[in-house]
Design brief:
186 residues, mainly alpha
């Protein structure tokens, strides 16, 4: 069945059709949630809540956008709500000695280390962005959504989406440059 047929069936209360939509969209939705929250566990919580919200609201889905786009918006809103709630209950992170060490198999350990180190720095830099900027950069640079879709997802104008993306990229560039300069100094 096509997604539009599944959505129509789900709107009429067909749980199996909605389950199929979940199967088709889960990987992208989970990845988005993890990137927006910065944690796999939080991402799993967000995805669960997003699908619950989608099921409750499927009757109001007008079909103006693709189901996946509608679901991305629900996921982004759920992630924002989750992060706001989480800030109320902050905790101290464990020290380095308590973090599990990932086993890595690499052909060239030095290159693997540099690549992993660069990815970790980039992920930390993205995580440090203010939420509105982080959401735009993830939707554009990770999910390759066009500016108009990002604007629709976040409920902002297309111009605002472009400005936020420019600011986010400039902030990331500056932060990564500063980190690189500091690493070179060491």
């Amino acid at each position: 069945m096509e997604d539009t047929e599944l959505v129509e069936a789900a709107r009429e209360g067909d749980r199996n059709a909605f389950d199929e939509l979940v199967r088709r969209t889960f990987a992208d939705t989970y990845t988005l949630a993890c990137r927006l929250t910065g944690h796999e566990e939080d991402g799993a919580d967000v995805v669960q809540e997003a699908y619950l919200r989608a099921w409750k609201a499927i009757g109001r889905f007008r079909g103006d956008a693709q189901f996946s786009t509608w679901l991305y918006r629900i996921t982004a809103n759920t992630a924002a709500t989750h992060k706001r709630r989480r800030r109320r209950y902050r905790s101290e992170p464990l020290g380095e000695e308590h973090h599990p060490v990932e086993a890595r198999i690499a052909v060239r350990p030095a290159e693997s280390f540099e690549s992993a180190e660069s990815l970790a720095r980039l992920a930390a830099a993205v995580e440090s962005l203010p939420e509105p900027l982080r959401m735009v950069v993830v939707l554009r640079d990770v999910y390759d959504l066009p500016h108009e879709a990002i604007a629709e997802e976040l409920g902002i104008t297309e111009g605002a989406a472009k400005v936020r993306l420019h600011r986010a990229r400039r902030h990331l560039r500056d932060l990564l440059y500063e980190q690189g300069a500091a690493a070179d100094a060491v």
